[in-house]
Specification:
Elements: H1 2-21, E1 23-29, E2 34-40, E3 43-50, E4 55-63, H2 73-79, H3 81-84, E5 90-94, H4 100-108, E6 113-118, H5 121-130, E7 139-143, H6 146-156, E8 160-165, H7 180-188, E9 190-201, H8 207-217, E10 220-225, E11 230-236, H9 246-256, H10 263-267, E12 270-271, H11 289-293
Parallel strand pairs: 5-6, 5-8, 6-7, 8-9
Antiparallel strand pairs: 1-2, 2-3, 3-4, 9-11, 10-11, 10-12
Keywords: Polyamine biosynthesis, Signal, Transferase
GO molecular function, one term: transferase activity
Protein name: Spermidine synthase
């Protein structure tokens, strides 16, 4: 009888601990989505509620014990772009989330101008309130649809050294930010010798179509891909090769260590093209994203 009581007590304690770990600290319904901020085991996360899938998707997470650590594997992979473009003077990030990438870049490159484009002002407010995202003369946020922002930048003849595509609506990348026309617009605001980096999924039914669209839009691609389902694409007009000089890699490893970036491990995630090269390219007229995603 005593063992039964102990078992029930243990089960109760585990349930209580689970509830405490999943503490919700903020909920907000914006014009674009439902935003949820919660904490588990000293990790604070921003989630978007996905109504048609019945759940939430992590958009950004922060380790409260190690606030500089990049929690997501894809964010660590994005940082590898610094080996390809070591001293960018200007960075454009499409999609803000909790702002972990612009904050890391600002620490590493204090003189670089970093502009994040975020369509939802509620996301920006949450990033400032719960993830220590801070704007200043070098870190800026523009509230706009990314494609509209880039079209306007084209007319203003603005350009960036590094453009990072990291916009998600909770389910996947918005359709109008996946087409060849959009990538051509991105290229028009990319400075000579510039770098484009994109966070994508290797498990999407759009994988082949998305891949051929990047291949048709850029001369050179370099891919980091892991078993976790994330794929980061580096794209440019110039050849892309990670440096192999040990002393150079050691210098960067020292700089990136606080962000939990393991260069040697990530270099092993390089992947060769493995998609159906005959898959139809996504265009503004042919972007069947919703159909393909829900066929998974």
């Amino acid at each position: 009888m005593k063992s039964i009581h102990l078992g029930c007590l243990l089960l109760t304690l585990l349930c209580v601990a689970s509830i405490v770990q999943a503490k919700v600290i903020h909920e907000e319904r914006s014009l674009y989505r439902n935003i949820l901020i919660d904490e588990k085991a000293n990790v604070r996360c921003m989630r978007f509620v996905v109504h048609n899938r019945g759940g939430t998707h992590n958009q950004s997470c922060k380790d409260l014990n190690e606030p500089r650590r990049l929690v997501f594997d894809y964010a660590q992979k994005v940082m590898m772009g610094l080996l390809l473009k070591p001293e960018p003077k200007s960075i454009l990030i499409v999609g803000l989330g909790g702002g972990s990438l612009p904050m890391a870049f600002h620490e590493l490159l204090p003189n670089a101008v970093i502009t994040s484009v975020e369509i939802d002002p509620a996301v920006t407010r949450a990033a400032k309130a719960y993830f220590d995202y801070q704007e200043n003369d070098f870190v800026r946020t523009e509230t706009a649809d990314a494609r509209v922002f880039i079209k306007r930048a084209m007319f203003r003849k603005q350009q960036w050294d590094w453009i990072i595509l990291d916009a998600f609506n909770g389910d996947y990348i918005p359709e109008h930010l996946m087409t060849m026309e959009f990538f051509q617009e991105v290229k028009s605001v990319l400075a000579p010798g510039g770098l484009v980096t994109a966070n994508t999924f290797s498990t999407s039914r759009l994988y082949d179509h998305e891949s051929t669209t990047y291949q048709a839009s850029f001369k050179n691609l370099l891919i980091l891909k892991s078993s976790k389902g994330n794929r980061v694409i580096f794209a440019a007009e110039q050849p892309l090769i990670f440096p192999i000089q040990e002393s150079y890699l050691a210098q960067w490893q020292q700089r990136l260590q606080p962000y939990d970036v393991n260069i040697k491990r990530l270099l092993n995630d390089q992947a060769v093209p493995d998609w159906d090269t005959q898959a139809r390219v996504l265009t503004d007229q042919y972007a069947p994203a919703n159909i393909l995603k829900h066929a998974q």
